[in-house]
Amino acid sequence: MAETHSLEHLVQALRRLPGVGVKSAQRMAFHLLQHDREGALHLARALEHAAASVQHCALCHTFTEEAICHTCQDPRRDRSQLCVVETPADQAAMERTGAYKGLFFVLMGKLSPLDGVGPHDIGLQKLFDRIDAPAQAPTGVSEVREVILATNFTAEGETTAHVIAQALKGRGVHVTRLARGVPVGSELEYVDLGTIAHALVDRR
Ligand code: ZN
Fold it and tell me: Which of 34, 59, 112, 175, by CA, is between 20 and 30 Å from 82?
C-alpha cells in the first residue's frame, strides 16, 4: 500500500540520525504526522535549504553559507594564532571567554578508531594544507605562527591532539595545548568560561 510505504520511508530516513533506532524513529514519524503536519513541512524545508546552502569555510572548515566565514574574514583577528577545536560548539565556548582573539580551525569531529573515524574523516589534511600554504583571505593572511590544540580532554580528543602535534613537527609552527585546568574527560562545550580562559593562558 502506498501510504504504509511512505510511512516506512520516513521511518528509515529518520533512522539516519545518530542515536535514533527504529522505535524512536517511529515515535517521531507518528508525532509529526498525527500532531504536527505544519512542523513536518517546516522541518522538510529547513533540511532541504540547509543541505543545499551550508558549506565548509575554505579556511577554517566550519559550517558557513559563504566561501569564507565571518570569523575568518574579521580583520581584527590575530592571524598568527590558530586554535584547533573539534566542533563549532567548542569554538563558541572559546569565543565566550573573550580571552582569545586569534583564528580557529574546526575539525568537525575527532579521531575515533573504534568508531571507524580516521584522519580522512575529519579536516586534518585541510588543516595541514592551511599551515603549509596559507590561503588568501580578502583581508590578507599572514603566517600562522602558533597552533593551539583545544580538542576536548577525552581519550579521543587527546589522541587527536597528539596526532596533530606529531604531524606539525617540522612545519615551522609553535604547537601548544590547552593547560590541564580543564577536567579530564570533559568537553569544552560544558566547561565554565573561567576555566577555559585559564587553560588558554597557561597553555604549554
Ligand atoms: Zn572560517
Answer: 112
